[in-house]
Amino acid sequence: MATERIITPDAVSPVDEQANFSLRPRALTEFVGQAELVERIRIAVEAVKQRDEPMDHVLLDGPPGLGKTTMAHLIAEEMGVRVHLTSGPALTRGSDLVGALTKLNAGDVLFIDEIHRLPPAVEEFIYPAMEDFRIDVSVDSGMHARTLSIQLKPFTLIGATTRSGLVSAPMRGRFGITHHLRYYDAEELFEILRRSSRRLELESAPESALRIIAGRSRGTPRIANRLLRRVRDYAQVRADGDFVDDVAHRALALEGVDEHGLDELDRAYLRTISETYRGGPVGLEAIAATMGEDAGTLGDVVEPYLLQRGFLARTRRGRELTPLAAERFGFHVNPGSEALFESE
Ligand SMILES: Nc1ncnc2c1ncn2[C@@H]1O[C@H](COP(=O)(O)OP(=O)(O)OP(=O)(O)O)[C@@H](O)[C@H]1O
Ligand SMILES: [Mg+2]
Questions:
Q1: Could you read off the pLDDT of 98-149 as tens digits, one per residue?
Q2: Do both 54 and 167 map to the same domain?
């Protein structure tokens, strides 16, 4: 059973995607946080513009909802080119990629989401395309087989992945810029919410209420914006449009988000380790099987934030709850836990 979660960083519905789109920063100057990434992009864009070259290929990795797609749009915007969107799973055959690449104008950005899911056969094609703006396709077969080289216009590939470990070394090596996006701190999320509340014409929302939402957004802009809309709905329907702290608290409680930003799935994950495995250590597969959840989802979406908050430790022996988890939630911690001595 996959749990529906308010805090899911994935876009859930077309309505949601639309809302995300309208709140998306439209220029690099509106992109909050990730200062090193923004600086690296600024420098690269300015340098290649001076040399009149296409921008280097960029690989962005990090948990969902942190702004990878947004950044791809902004790079294209800065370069004054168009962005074409596709994804690893959508490119099933070499010819899909050929189609996508030959449509590009000089300098355009091809954005490939979930690039770690690119089939190996397509990956082969992409190497010469990235290096020499060329694709080699074989035509005919048997005795008459020959390779046809198609020259492409120079382009920029921007790849995004939530699983950087699954991107092959030869693939990774062909990107000029690779960057890991990190979770946003409360101050950055507050800034994002302030901008969003202006766009949503919620000027009356007090700073304090926005800070409450920021603190419960799991370090993720997409979640922050979604919670903001839920609180707005709640205020409108249950509180005469009064967007105040108490209303924010009530709305978020109704959504099942606690004061650490954890939702039911996060808590179920921690509870499973505590109750079934006495605090760990335990392997991810075992936790997933016990919960009836997908190990990949837990690994990509649930664990990174719990690790970052220090509720979970990954030791040589497996996943273990930390003393902090014991203190905050009263969970079991294995008395011999390595997490007591080392934390990653
Ligand atoms: N740095 C930022 N500043 C302001 N808003 C942001 C920022 N990053 C993301 N957002 C907001 O969060 C939403 C989600 O971002 P985006 O779709 O780019 O995430 P993503 O990393 O591509 O996620 P996924 O991996 O799920 O595709 C955007 O629509 C935008 O409103
Ligand atoms: Mg995206």
A1: 999 999 999 999 999 999 999 998 998 999 999 999 998 887 778 888 888 9
A2: yes
Looking at the structure of the chain, the number of domains it has is: 3
Owning domain of residue 191: 186-254
Catalytic, out of 68, 211, 216, 309: 68
Residues 153 and 288 in one domain: no
Residue 69 known to be catalytic? yes
Q: Is 317 a catalytic residue?
A: no
In a domain, 10, yes or no: no
Distance (Å) of CA 145 to CA 38, 128, 134, 216 = 47, 20, 19, 59
- What is the pLDDT at residue 22? 84
203, 231, 254 - which closes a domain: 254
Q: Which residue has the tokens 């990878």?
A: 68
Return the ∠ at Cα 61 (arms to 59 and 63), rounded to 5°.
Answer: 160
Nearest Cα neighbor of 265 from 35, 1, 5, 88 is: 5
* CB of 10 closer than 6 angstroms to any ligand 1 atom: yes
Q: Which pLDDT tens digit goes with each residue over 183-228?
A: 999 999 999 999 999 999 988 889 999 999 999 999 999 999 999 9
Same-domain pairing of 317 and 248: no
* Ligand 1 geometric centre to CA of 11 (Å): 10
**Residue 269 belongs to a domain with what CATH number?**
1.10.10.10
